[in-house]
Amino acid sequence: MNKKLILLGILLTMSLLLVNSASALSAANTNPNAGNPGDTVTGSFVLTDNVAGNAVTGISFSVANLVGVTDSAQNILASAVTFNPTSIATMNVDGNANVATSVVIPANKAAQTYQGTVTVSGTENGNAVQTTFTLSVVVNSLTAVSVQTFDNSTPLEIFGEEGQTGKTGTFTIQNTGNQALNALTFDTSALDLSDSSNNAITLSFSTPGTLNSGQSATVTITANFGSSIDLDTYGGVVNVKQGSTTLDSFKLDLKIIPEICEDGIVNEGVVTSNSNGDIQIDIRDPDSGDNFKSGDTMNVEVRVDNDGSDNMDIAVTAILYDLDADDEIASFETSSEEINDGNDETFEFDLEIPRSSDLDESNRYVLYVKAFEDGNEDENCNFESLTLDFERERDDVVFDQVDVTPSVVRPGDNVNMRLDLKNEGTRDQDNVYVKVVNSELGINLISNEFDLQRAGDSDDDIVRTFTATIPTSAVAKDYLIEFTIYDESDDAFENGQEFVTLKVQGEGTSGTGSGNVVNVNVKSNTPTVNAVNGRASLNFVFTNNEKANLDAVVEVVTVGSWAKPIAPQTLNLRTGDNSLYFDVELSDGVEQGPKSATVIIRPSGNSDFDSQSYSFNFDVQGTESGSLFNGSIPTLFWVIGDVVLVLLAIFIVKALFFGKKH
To answer: Do 575 and 546 sit in the same domain of this protein?
Structure first.
């Protein structure tokens, strides 16, 4: 009997312990929302301590693989499931805890429901406690494609010249969904494929075929560039579609370029893209979008990498190109450098930008930098490019050309100087003048003032000529002649200076003059000469800036035969302004247009100073009258007027003295 009672007690105790163990913990689960392959979905569960009086400690979580309900061969590994917090040290007595569940759905996972058991284990009052629940994750059906490498900000580039056909580029697409794809299309309706003259680019795409979930395929684009199509970048966004649904997109740049590499971008003789060549180029200076100006010296710094397996002698060429004018602006080619395989070399050089009013601020300019295997450009050649912006200075008058003839002279010879000037700035320039100076030769020539319209306008350039006589006392050597352009404020233009070397051969008599250079300025008040009557009056203002009067002989010498010799004047140049007139008889048959003359001031009497010369330009207008009808209309008008007045006077006299008799 006692044994039976003892056994009954043991069984009752064990039953109570089992009841306590089974009901000490419970979990109320909320499954994650449905998700697509590649998504991370989240749910949660609430853990509750169901037994009063003791805390549950050392709580941990484990999960089995989530197995597909429809297709049990498919599963989501337990490693894709995480809990937050990952464990609980102690849960408050009679309390509860919230635990977040995260599941990373693998890419391409088949659409169905996946289930697995989550086990929660802990200890309460020294006894092991646990609870379990089923975690379910629903994976949606997903039709998806990913274009590898390229997107809407990183374009696939295809380069070619106008008229070239069969230029190709490739890209890879991958089925990142869980549905098979067998009818993909490439929508190019949003692309710009023609210029303003309707010269067009045609495109074709290879067929990727059927792509099962996770599979990839390479697609080749073939471009044919129309003949005479403008240099430009065409293209836009290509949409990859299944039916009418756009699955992905990428940017396609179709670049019509001048000939840079003679056989296009090639690697070991095979046409390729610039990213796949063994020769790789990094343009470090200038930067894309930098400004350049007419007459600039552009510093170019390029790093070239040899990613091939052979050493190569590599040279670099830089070409500045005007896309709108389809014209090369400037270029420079370096000498070659041997670059071992796996190594790099930095090339640094200057690119001289010519001065040209043809450069337009609204045009598009590209700097192409080509690196090629010297002597084997058809085997290895690559290039990179960047856009630059052209900018003009506000005030920028320059010498387009300076000619000094002859360049070798003897003492006493005359030197002719022709100056071609251009306004390269954005503003009109008024009252501009030029100085030509060499103190050793006594050359101090100043032109009359002139106006220039802003760059690109019809009157943005002008020609000025000077004549100087080499002193008979000049020493045989090289002389540097300085040419400077000044604005209306008498400030030299920043880029308006040139120097030309003049060689004097043969010895002069003695020295180069008295060494006394006086400060005298000369200004012409006669910009236009009217040749109608065959004569003109030239007015000059001589400003003596010295403290004393100067005795001088002033001579006007015309350059060319447009006027007959002009008599010199001997006078006293008072301190300050002195106005002088010179009567000029024009040569027979003188042609209209710009003419020039040199004003020479020589010492006279008791004055002792170095002779000075000043050059002036005149616009000869009209023609010399040879007869009544060979002159201008105003001349004929006044002659006829005189005849009419005479006839009228005769009529009045006759009326007064020989009137009608009664």
So the answer is: yes
